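User: Structure please.
Assistant: Input sequence and predicted structure:
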Amino acid sequence: MSRAYRVALVGTGGIARAHAIACENNDRAELVAACDISPQSLERFTRQFNVPHVYSTLDEMLAAEEIDIAVICVWGVLHAQVGIQLAESRRVRAILCEKPFTQNAAEAETFVAAGRKHDVLVAEAFKFRHHPMHLKAQEIIQQGRIGSLLTVRSTFCTNVSLERRQRPEENWRFNRSKGGGSIYDLACYNIHHARYVFGEEPQRVFAAQVRGLEVDDAAYISLVFSRGRTAQISVGFDSWESQYVEISGNAGLLRIDRAWNNENQAVTLAHHTEKGVERLEFAPVHQFSHQLAHLCDCLDSGTPYRIPPAHSIAQMQVLDAVAESMQSGKAIPLDI
């Protein structure tokens, strides 16, 4: 590639800043444009980042710009709509979509189909999948160094005050109409991680919730995989901050204390066996920058993105089952 990939952001809220920093950190990517329906959001964003062109609508940006990578940073409820518009525009080569990928599996299938039809790479943005620590953990598992994989336990809790949770108009996470809820903002990480670690889809799902004003403030989820192996997940806006992962086998255990939000922080992967504990230290990294670098590698070489589109559809099928179980109080069988 003789020039940097041209990156455009759809939405300039909080998460867009992480993607803008990723562009600053990557000499193969250049942030050329951003759009947002909120003039105030655009103004705040451009005070922090140098963006050559800004637009108030996606239509305007697509008409004016030639884009290599479009990053979807809007509310989750709009992801499918925006993704399909980008794919059908024939003005982009790749779409990096923030989590949750869509609101349900039907939307995910339509989004992925639009990308396939128009030869656009559709990539789900789970930043942790590109962290050297998680890549190393998967290598250890695949090498059999914890024995036969049995159980994954994980949390993602953020300790948001009740006062903030009861103002859904101020934050999409607590707003049902914008696609909020603990399973869409938090548990999507844990569910994706468990599916990645086991290398298969769960056969059954059970979930309970703690209801907030408009959305689930917390959720407790069990995923049952083949041979009775399980993932046990606890997430919540309401409980004390926690984001650990434990991966257990019959000959060892892996422990990560800060699994998801660890931007620019040193982290440790602890490998427990009968010989003791080996602690693998990892220097601070910016996960979004690693994610963008991987996407550039894919565009350079034509190699597949780490998260295939079919995996993103299956992710939403599992989340659909989690939502159904929370509402019905019943275990939901899956056949993916």
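DSSP finds ten helices and 15 strands in the chain.
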